[in-house]
Amino acid sequence: MGRRGSAMKLSATLLVLLHLSMNVVDEGHAVNPSCSCIRFTSTYGKERGTFSSPDYPRPYPPRVDCLLYTFLAAPHEIVELVFTDFDIYKEHLDCVRGDYLKVYWEVQGPGPPGSVSERSAWARELCGGRADAPPALYSPGPALVLEFHTGPKQNNATGFVGTYSFIDRRLFETDGVRVPGTECDYQFSRSGSRPTHGRLYSPRYPSIYPNNIRCSYHFHARPKERVKVVFEEVSLQKGDISCLRRADIIKVFDGRDTTAPAIAMLCNELTGYEVLSTGPALLLQFTANSATAGQGFAATFHFQPPPDSTAADSDRLLKLSFGKAFESLGPEVSATTSSCHQEFNSDGTKHGTLTSPHYPSPYPPNTHCHYEFFGRGKERVRLVFQDFYLHKSADGSSDCTSVDSLQAFIYVDGRLEKVDMFCGVNLPKPIMSNGPKLMLEFRGTLSSRHARGFKISYSFVENFGISTGRQLKEFPCAFVYNSSESRNGTFASPNSPGPYPRDTECTYFFHGGETEKVHLHFTSFEVEGVSPCEAVSASDYVEFSNSMTEDSKFGRYCGQRKEFHVESERNFFKVTFRSNDRLDGTGFKAIYQFLEITDKYQAPMQEDASSSMCILGHRLLLIAVALAQLHHQLYH
Fold first, then answer.
1. What is the DSSP string of 103-146?
2. The domain defined by 470-596 carries CATH number 3.40.50.150
3. Element (H or E) spanning 631, and its range?
4. CATH 3.40.50.1000, applies to 312-461
5. Which of 422, 391, 394, 392 has the alpha carbon at shortest distance from 408?
6. Residue 279: its pLDDT value, please?
7. What's CA 133's distance to the chain center, in Å?
8. Whole-number pLDDT of residue 507
9. Which residues form the CUB domain (predicted)?
10. 21 to each of 158, 161, 429, how far by Cα in Å?
11. Which CATH architecture has domain 173-304?
12. What is the model's pLDDT at position 113?
């Protein structure tokens, strides 16, 4: 964005027959002498119209200097384009030379509506295959123009075909009250006749948002009420770098202003992400400073009544928290009448114990139980198994699908997804949710006098199961280690020693004295991914830096690694752990130590129990020999 359009050459031989599969109005109308233009101002009663490149589906001809597709909607409408096929020869990575399709939607200036001249700036350039084209294009206003250009070389690329429609832009209006004198600050208050729920959008949604903006969405509920925001769609700048280094980011604060604890930081593409405040106030702040803007976000808000009210009970029965996701698990799951169905809400208690029916006695046959956990704010649900003994299969198989089992479900991209399944008698490691909700489903078809079931300690935690360092409230998961407080210690991935949760980013900041450096010794490391640990391989990763920004000295670390060391160049070091929503691993454990810059690291001597006993026995033997010699000298 912001780059100037190239001068459009006069085309004396522009195609007359375009073999388009629809009728258009004002066909061939040139709004600029440099180009020929095809105008689309109606779908003629149909839901969508169609457009295509010349000669589609045959290869398009070379030397198409300037062909404009101009889509003009009514003043209260926006244009939506959807490519059903896309194949433009990609001669250069940036798509500005050779064959390309340029998109203009800041269509302004003198001349007819929707006109483009050599002074117009295009919004983006498209070329390549179907994967390179966006799922849809939306104009911010009532006009959108495509410029098709082909180079002198003939190739076998077939071009493009798509559909267009005109959408009422009022469907994407934010339901709050805009703050006077601001571009995109809104207030949402639960007062008077105002509704208890509504919608909010990023500026210009569903078109791309402008850059260099900051929008604040302030929510004020009644006392004892909560604010729930569900992000139905989030699409910010591309890439898989840390949220701390993103120019475009959504931050959610659990209070009235940015001094409140941060609940969430969103900087990627996701759907169905939910946040719930701990009190009656919530602040959502959207900042966009990148040159590669995305579509933005669409979200809903809901002022929830107090947990102990009749309205809250109705909400629970309607499954507003988990939605229709339960229905996919079968009819028994969506029912709340099961004798062993239990709900655990952090409003009642932050921790407790959960057991199978009749524990420690055997659970009865044909047992089917559901246990739902609901946190708030930045809370995560953590389960630690104290006892686990289910009926085992006779053949000793490790497959849990056809035997008594306990399954754990989390919420991923708006759907309920199984994260793990446990069976047999081995004690599972701790598990942690990726957000404030988690569900367990216990199926005990068989029983025996030995199958006593399970005992689990549950807790709603805000520290992600990280027990060392000082947690920063400015970020959902960030911890500080100062040499002034401790010159050495340990740190680990979230939920250690259990698998780390999905959709989680945690940062560890190490601050030494002026003459110190930071040495890290990783004693175990298993982070799901394949080198070079990028999004294309759906990799989680650990990243190191000598500064707050990216450090080219260090690459990303993922996969399984033996013990290794990492050392800073100065007195500051940053470690970033990031997981996606796909798979999980056991994470990492590490020892940190602040050293003088001139010192060399010396690994601490480790002795196992057998070697310690051997050394102790040897020392006792030497003492015994010395005593015998002393006795001999005294009495002989």
1. EE----SSSSTT---TT-B-SEEE-BSGGGS-S-EE-SSSEEEE
2. no
3. helix 609-635
4. no
5. 422
6. 94
7. 22
8. 97
9. 35-167, 184-304, 340-461, 477-595
10. 15, 9, 60
11. Sandwich (2.60)
12. 54
SS3 label, residue 628 = helix
Burial classification of residue 23, based on how many CB atoms lie within 10 Å of its CB (0-12 exposed, 13-18 middle, 19 or more buried)? exposed
User: Same CATH topology for 36-168 and 470-596?
Assistant: yes
User: Residue 134 corresponds to which amino acid?
Assistant: P
Average pLDDT over residues 136-141: 94
| Helix (H) and strand (E) counts in the chain | 3, 39
Which bin fits 487, alpha (ψ -120 to 50), beta or left (φ > 0)?
alpha
CATH homologous superfamily for 36-168?
Answer: Spermadhesin, CUB domain (2.60.120.290)
Whether the predicted pLDDT of 93 surpasses 50: yes
**What's the whole-number mean pLDDT along residues 609-614?**
40
CB 24 within 8 A of CB 38: yes
Domain boundaries, the chain: 36-168, 173-304, 312-461, 470-596
| Phi and psi angles of residue 494, each rounded to the nearest 5 degrees, phi first | -55, 140
pLDDT number for residue 601: 63
Q: Residue type for 487, please?
A: R
The C-alpha atoms of residue 450 and residue 599 are separated, in whole angstroms, by 58
Phi then psi for 313, rounded to 5 degrees?
-65, -40
Nearest to 210 by CA among 125, 116, 292, 101: 292
- Rounded CA-CA distance 258/166 in Å is 39
Angle at 19 between CA 17 and CA 21, to 5 degrees: 140
| pLDDT tens by residue, 6-51 | 333 323 222 222 333 333 333 333 334 567 889 999 998 899 999 9
> What band does 549 get if pLDDT is binned at 50, 70 and 90?
confident
Closest CA to 586 of 514, 542, 525: 525
Which pLDDT score, from 0 to 100, does residue 443 have?
Answer: 92
Place of tokens 């027959």: 17
Count Cβ atoms below 10 Å from residue 501 Cβ, excluding itself: 27
Where does residue 565 fall: left (phi above 0), alpha (psi -120 to 50 degrees), or beta otherwise?
A: beta
Strands 177-178 and 281-288, how do they pair? unpaired
In this structure, are residues 385 and 468 in contact, taking their beta carbons and an 8 Å threshold?
A: no
- Give the integer Cα–Cα distance in Å for 320 and 140: 33
Evaluate the CA torsion angle 320, 321, 322, 327 in order and state its sign: negative
Nearest to 207 by CA among 81, 73, 43, 72: 81
